[in-house]
Amino acid sequence: MELRHLRYFVAVAEELNFSRAAGRMYLSQPALSQQVRKLELELGVSLFSRTKNHVELTEAGRVLLEGARRVLVLVEQTAREAREVGGAEISHLRVGFPEYANHTPVADALQTFRRRYPYVELEEHETLTLQETLLQIDKLHRGTLDIGFMLKPEEDDLVEIEHVLNIELVAALPEGHPLADRDAISMKDLADERLILFSRNFHPRSYDYVVACCREAGFKPKVVQRKEPQLYSGATTYRMVASGIGVGIVARPVLSGYRQYDVIFKPLKDPAPALALVAAWRRGHSSPNLQAFLEGVRELSSIGGQASNGLTPNGDFAAGI
Amino acid sequence: MELRHLRYFVAVAEELNFSRAAGRMYLSQPALSQQVRKLELELGVSLFSRTKNHVELTEAGRVLLEGARRVLVLVEQTAREAREVGGAEISHLRVGFPEYANHTPVADALQTFRRRYPYVELEEHETLTLQETLLQIDKLHRGTLDIGFMLKPEEDDLVEIEHVLNIELVAALPEGHPLADRDAISMKDLADERLILFSRNFHPRSYDYVVACCREAGFKPKVVQRKEPQLYSGATTYRMVASGIGVGIVARPVLSGYRQYDVIFKPLKDPAPALALVAAWRRGHSSPNLQAFLEGVRELSSIGGQASNGLTPNGDFAAGI
DNA sequence: TAAAAATACTCCATAGGTATTTTAT
DNA sequence: ATAAAATACCTATGGAGTATTTTTA
Fold it and tell me: Has domain A3-86 been given CATH number 1.10.443.10?
């Protein structure tokens, strides 16, 4: 018997419904049913009567429920005491990352860390705008953030940088566009298109990088000038694309949840533009928590699916936001 | 955290020695070290100071030890209560098997069952002699045994039989014997050898089966006549082989622990003789325990390594003891 | 220089997932 | 007809093994 069995059993006993209990435990209903079944087999008694419409505790189940609760409370209590005596200050780890990193192994690393070190208070600071993302560097300096993810920033002696993965840029086309039925789009095909980018003000390097990619393909891009938003949110861009103003060049939305904008995404090639996502932390700042987290990031980003999806990004060009 | 971690931790805390504790928990030292390490990481405190010569509990470790013991006791107590209330009679399973089955998946099945159903009292009745093994059928009749393993016995309406695996027979040769450097030995190579078998009295079917194999290979075997032992124990046979009295035909000793007798074992072929090991239980006797155990046997004997080691045994001939 | 713990891998058992069927109202 | 649990099958995490290195009395 493991605590897992007791935790699951208590959940079912409290919900009196396997599916709901499964939801509460963040696992699937069959997985939970299986573990409860194992517990019953091991004990040699049935804990629930599933005969009727509704699940019901048996007599043995009621006895176990009481004991299981006590066990779980005692375990928590004991762990807390040991931590206090051991002088484990309530350690935390503050991680910043831009919204679009949710689709990358970065998110998996966060989840893994949370599971592996449940007693570390993990703060997730999601940044929604370019400005916020840029501010991460400042927060690292001031020590109000432990590690931040961002497109490759300017060199900074006080900050250590490590490449994590490459974020592929793709073309966003309106439905019915002549290029919309191709598998991939060569940059030079965009020579006569009006391109929709974020304003250069917001991140010169990235802007210049995209322009450089166009030059590489042999043309000078015609960019639709924008004054407005500092928002990453592709939504504005997508709306512009959908209304036929031009072709967008955007980070590939891994969750294809933007069908609503009637926008079609196509990989770019010759060259395939990509932006380097890096992790950044204060030089010399090496708490065990930070190290452990970084380790997880390295594992997942190297083994796991590259966001660049097989494209070989132009590392030299890769600029940062 | 799981109970596993607490169990292992308590063992180390009591032994103050990882290797010994690992032995007590029936696992390897690195495995135990790893789990304790995980516990320390999760709690964020070190539980042992490994600095000095000897392992020592830290303050946090002492606190955890106390709590962990309470938890483990409470778990046991709760499980017992639930079982009592649920009316789970102290169920048992009595399994008989000949000594040589220790080398086969049968042993794994026993171990698996013990681990999976710790609350079932599993009695292992190892039989050391032919007579004892034969008596298993009688015990099944009388209901003093739930399931027995044996070489395929006579038909018996009161007993259900299921094939489990084939036990390969091999030649036992003295060192320096002309055949001792071959990879495998054809039965017909034994035509001019004196063969050492158990006495026919003890199990005519098996004896006759081996003789039939010789006939199949085209010769009438010259068998060294034996009066004595009803013991399976190959020891006597091995001694006879070693002293040059003849060539033994014996069950392959999987644990090559008989080097002490200066005997060399070689596979036999043309035909490759094998004896069918079966499970037997009283017809209609189908307690959940028995069913669960049988299931484990089936899994392990089908998936796991056949004792016959790839030889295709002559099923028709396969006799029983 | 031994004995014990830590490292570095390899493997596989099993927890958990997905898809589907059965059951019960 | 619907909702919930059971069943079947598959995947992959991580617990445990073996081999080796490091450590320390």
Answer: no
Q: Which residue of A41, A63, A78 is in closest CB contact with B82?
A: A63
**Contact with chain A for residue B141, Cβ under 8 A:** no
A243 touches strand C (CB under 7 A): no
Measured between alpha carbons, how far is A132 from B23 in angstroms, rounded to an integer? 55
From residues 9-38 of A, list those within 7 angstroms of strand D by Cβ: 17-20, 29-30, 33-34, 37
Task: Write down which residues 67-86 in B have CB closer than 7 A to strand D.
Answer: none
Q: What is the pLDDT along chain B (321 residues), one digit of tens a residue?
A: 899 999 999 999 998 888 889 888 888 889 899 899 989 988 888 898 887 668 888 888 999 999 999 999 999 999 999 988 887 767 889 999 987 787 778 888 888 888 888 888 889 998 877 778 888 999 999 889 999 999 888 889 999 998 888 888 889 899 889 998 888 899 999 999 999 987 777 777 888 889 999 998 999 999 987 766 544 456 778 888 888 889 999 877 654 444 556 788 888 988 889 888 899 999 988 788 888 888 888 876 665 444 433 323 333 333 333
Structure token digits, residue B53: 């010569």
Question: DSSP string of B58-109?
Answer: -HHHHHHHHHHHHHHHHHHHHHHHHHHHTT----EEEEEEEGGGGGSHHHHH
Judge whether B54 is closer than 8 Å to chain A, CB to CB: no
d(CA B194, CA B184): 18
Q: SS3 of B166, please?
A: strand
Domain ranges within chain A, ordered by starting residue: 3-86, 130-285+308-321
The C1' atom of D11 and the CA atom of A116 lie apart, in whole Å, by 21
Query: Are B120 and A82 an interchain contact pair (Cβ–Cβ within 8 Å)?
Result: no
The CATH class that applies to domain B130-285+308-321 reads: alpha beta
